[in-house]
TrEMBL record:
Listed InterPro entries: Cyt_B5-like_heme/steroid-bd, Cyt_B5-like_heme/steroid_sf, Cyt_B5_heme-BS, Cytochrome_b5
Keywords: Endoplasmic reticulum, Heme, Iron, Membrane, Metal-binding, Microsome, Transmembrane, Transmembrane helix, Transport
UniProt-annotated location(s): Endoplasmic reticulum membrane; Microsome membrane
Gene expressing this chain: difF
Residue ranges annotated for the Cytochrome b5 heme-binding domain, each copy included: 4-80
Protein name as annotated: Cytochrome B5
Family note: Belongs to the cytochrome b5 family.
A Gene Ontology cellular-component term: endoplasmic reticulum membrane
GO molecular function: heme binding; metal ion binding
Membrane topology (UniProt): Single-pass membrane protein
Segments passing through the bilayer: 121-140
SUPFAM superfamilies associated with the record: Cytochrome b5-like heme/steroid binding domain
Amino acid sequence: MDKQRVFTLSQVAEHKSKQDCWIIINGRVVDVTKFLEEHPGGEEVLIESAGKDATKEFQDIGHSKAAKNLLFKYQIGYLQGYKASDDSELELNLVTDSIKEPNKAKEMKAYVIKEDPKPKYLTFVEYLLPFLAAAFYLYYRYLTGALQF
Ligand code: HEM
């Protein structure tokens, strides 16, 4: 199904049974009907939240990144008035960005690959520092008389 569909709160509220269970997490409408039996936290908690916004409950449990990823698997749309910035609160950004803007994610990857992997200060450490060390050593030897030009 098209994940970009927009639902109103009352539309979501109609899907509140075990056979048809939608919940809202961070402005995302998620159809968890097929996930009820799989949910490690049990189906009861999901059914209790059916047709409602369960963002707070979802957040309070401290669901893992894997659980957050599952949201997108079961997402069927957005709640009317949803703002993409809302995701930052639930730290969904990392997982959502590639889904919301797949092209941008690709660009980012390409950008990272093209980037010079060596930080600038490495050039200094790698080349200039050994040179300076050698110069100081020779100068020291010269001062102590061990080296004569
Ligand atoms: C679509 C929404 C949800 C998904 C995809 C989901 C997914 C998961 C997953 C994968 C776990 C295993 C632990 C982890 O990876 O974090 C889990 C555990 C759990 N979830 Fe959910 N969950 C959802 C919604 C909820 C809601 C709304 C509640 C509460 C009202 C809830 C309560 C719990 C509890 C109590 C556990 C067990 C935590 C534990 O054993 O420490 N979940 N959930």
